[in-house]
Amino acid sequence: MSKILVIDDDVDMCLLLKRFLSKNGYEVTLAHNGKKALEELENAEPNLVLCDFRLEDIDGKELLVKIKEKYPRTPVIIVTGYSDIKVAVDVMKLGAYDYVTKPLFPDEILLSIKTALQKSAAKQDNSTSTVIMPDDDLKNANRGKTITSGQYIFSDSAEFKNILKQIDLVSPTNYSILIYGESGSGKEAIAQEIHKRSKRKDMPFVAIDCGALSKELAGSELFGHEKGSFTGALNQKIGNFEIANGGTIFLDEVANLTYDVQVALLRVVQERKMRRIGGNKDIDLDVRIIIASNERLLDSARKGKFREDLYHRFNEFSIEVPPLRERKYDIMIFAKHFLRLTNEELNKNIRGFSPEVEAIFKTYVWPGNLRELKNVVKRATLLCDTEYIMPTVLPFEITNFTKLQFNETVEEATSIIQTKQFDIPAPPPTVVNTYTAPVVSEPVFTKQLEINEHSLKGASIDAEYEMIVEALRKANYNKSKAAKILNVDRKTLYNKMKQYKQFNSDL
Hints:
- The chain has helices at 11-23, 34-44, 60-70, 85-93, 106-126, 136-141, 158-170, 187-196, 218-223, 240-243, 259-271, 297-302, 308-314, 328-346, 355-363, 369-383, 396-399, 401-404, 456-474, 479-486, 490-502, and strands spanning 3-7, 27-31, 48-52, 76-80, 98-101, 132-134, 147-149, 152-154, 177-181, 205-209, 224-225, 237-238, 248-252, 273-274, 283-284, 288-293, 317-321, 352-353, 388-389.
- The protein folds into 4 domains: 3-126, Response regulator (Rossmann fold), CATH 3.40.50; 128-168 and 324-399, Helicase, Ruva Protein, domain 3 (Orthogonal Bundle); 171-322, P-loop containing nucleotide triphosphate hydrolases (Rossmann fold), CATH 3.40.50.300; 412-502, no CATH class.
- Helix content is 44%, strand content 14%.
- It is built from 21 helices and 19 strands.
- β14 and β15 form a beta hairpin.
- The relative contact order is 0.07.
- With 507 residues, the protein is an alpha/beta fold.
- The two termini are 48 Å apart.
């Protein structure tokens, strides 16, 4: 059950909110002044704070600063009777999650609380801090200079040196920036680094996950709305573009936005003006736009999923973030960084990783990139009762990665498709089938093929097999992605793989 701290000097309002939120499954603690609120924060350790902007003993901004200094991960929703854009921008800049005005409407406040708690829970695994500073521990432990951004770091590998050079080059400009990278590769950390090196560093940085926005509310979240503009618009809402005015807005997975929202976004990019949904007044914008995607937007544009004119507007400068599997040198640097953070969090003193674990980490392909590595290190640190993390505390799918590449179940994980024999006459006795064990991160495929040069059926099967193997490699052995590459459904791919297993007597 999530805990909520309600701070309001209006006793009746506090009791009303407590009854309402308790009925909706939350554990509620009340505080009627700033001093009591700070005490309850330490005692109750709430998951969210709902705070009135005007209190008798302390200003809402001052209290917000104190809360975020001590509890930076706790989302704070500010409540006030005044609809003032300047106040909204100020509190969001100071770290508030949301800003709502009185009178409070049950559906609106409940939606804001649920969304804040969901994003807060997700950020426990995926968060990136806005503070960037030298990491002395890592600099001593590893060669070269390392920069840390909360849960993420910029190492001194050639790949990241190149990225930092691009950041230095583009940060002082007002160019729109497109960041390409797989999920979990640290795109938001790069966007924050660009913001902090820009002239806008003292203004808001607002990050939006477009993939998490519902189709119905995406426009409202980005551009805001006027009261009564649509069903459920019970009050005026300030959009994220307006909140980010003067600063930087980061739109992650922008290809998920609907066509209508893309049209509105194009006007923002072209004219630097926007209009709230249901509004009749243009609002001038001075905001830098950084977008990120894990798919090529030009390809999406050619498929009709993304506006090509919008793509060209965004693509003033692009940065490629290579996946972790292509940066072998970085794997242990990040692993040690995450271990240090987890040691602090769990009050442990794990000294490092065994040589076997380091070898496993460098062999694994990390489809979830830094996010997956961080979660694996956190889990292993929690389970570890020795000085060094051993393979026994790693997830099964990582320690048995090579065996599981072609198999869905543990029972099938006892062998790999290393050879392939077709349903053809047996080869002469002098032919010896060979088996080559994998010694690199991806499996080594060898096959014995005795086939008549005029056997069209055998040739087509051989070509099909090679296409499947190549697709699996490109998809890092993710069968769903491989099926998309091959333009077949997942079930068809499974059936084909099973068909090839039947030709191999070892499977």
